[in-house]
Amino acid sequence: MSKMKEEFKPKIVTFMCNWCGYQAEDLEELSELKITPSIRVIRVMCSGRVHPALILDALNKGSDGVLVCGCHEGECHYISGNVRAEEGVEKTKKLLDLLRIETERVKLERISPSEGKKFTDVLKCFSEQLISMGPISLVTREVNIL
After folding, report:
1. Single pTM value for the model
2. φ/ψ of residue 59, rounded to 5
């Protein structure tokens, strides 16, 4: 790993479902990751409300990756919100592909309230993946993807 990538701490925006992902957030374990300052948690009532434009805006404004956390299939409080979230993330990945931005910068995870450890593990793994990819190039950000 190059020295630049070792020093790089990715900025991650995390959209979290109020009913599942947000309740799984374990701040005690998060503090052990040593990347907490670079993670921004945005609470949404349902992961299905995370429109592709929100994800693109987060990337355009400096985030290196976006994580969308929602309910497991069949457990959505709004019946099909988690299905809409999956569709939205897939649409976003297609747009990123057209813009020649790594689709791996956007991730959808299904996390229940009792899976705080899973949330921490997902964040750690996602952060390591972003570190290996490095920051989004400034040229890409100057294009203004919205």
Report:
1. 0.83
2. -65, -40
